[in-house]
Amino acid sequence: MKQSDLSAVEQSVLNAVKEEHLPSYEILKKVDNISMILSLYNILDKLATKGVLKSYIKQNIRYHYAA
Is residue 6 within 8 Å of 18, Cβ to Cβ? Predict the structure, then answer.
């Protein structure tokens, strides 16, 4: 997957999770141009479909990270 295939918002989310594994609410705090959690979930789903984002559940919290 080329980085140029990602929108600016998708790239911002991916940059947020490159440094550390984060839950959704932490990603929402770090990315300025997303104001609603539902929008973030849609972006996370798109990134996972593109194969650049993975997630796991630890202590009932879903964490996301760059693949």
Answer: no
